[in-house]
Amino acid sequence: MTAAPLTCIELVEIVTEYLDGTMSPELRQRFDQHLALCDGCTEYVEQIRETVLALGSISEQNLSDPGRQALLDAFRDWTPPKRRLWQRVLRRSSRQ
Question: Which helix (H) or strand (E) holds 93?
Answer without folding.
Answer: helix 80-95
